[in-house]
Amino acid sequence: QVQLVESGGGLVQAGGSLRLSCAASGSIFSINTMAWYRQAPGKQRELVASIASNGVPNYANFVKGRFTISRDNKNTMYLQMSGLKPEDTAVYYCSLNQGGLLRWGQGTQVTVSS
Question: pLDDT tens for residues 21-41?
Answer without folding.
Answer: 999 999 999 899 999 999 999
